[in-house]
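Here is one chain, start to finish.
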Amino acid sequence: MGSGVVTEIRNMVSFAELAAGDRLVIETARSTYTFAMSDPSQRLGSLGGGNLPDTQSAFAIGAVSGEHAFWKGGVRVGDRAVFLSPNLRAHDTSSRLVTSQVVRISIEWREPHAA
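Its structure:
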C-alpha cells in the first residue's frame, strides 16, 4: 500500500497522538499556522505561518481557553494555541507565540492512522 498523507479535520487534538512527520494546520480568523512534529517525546517541531517571517523550531506547549484556563495536552477549536521558540535575537532566551482563537484544526497524518 502506498504511503500518502491523510488529512483529518478535528475539534481537538492531543499532542500525544502525533508522531514524527505528522503536521498540524491551525487556522485562526486571521492566520494559518503549520506545526510539523519532529520529536514527539519533546513536542518539538517546525512552526511556520501567521506573522512568522520563516519556519522555525518550536515546542508545542498547549492552549489557553478563556481568561485563565490552560491545557498542556493539546489544542481545541476555540482555544489559543501556545508555542515556545528559541529567540534568535537574544542568546539563551525563548519567545512565546500565542495564536488568536483557533477556528479549525487539521491533522496531516504521515502514516495511515486509526481514528
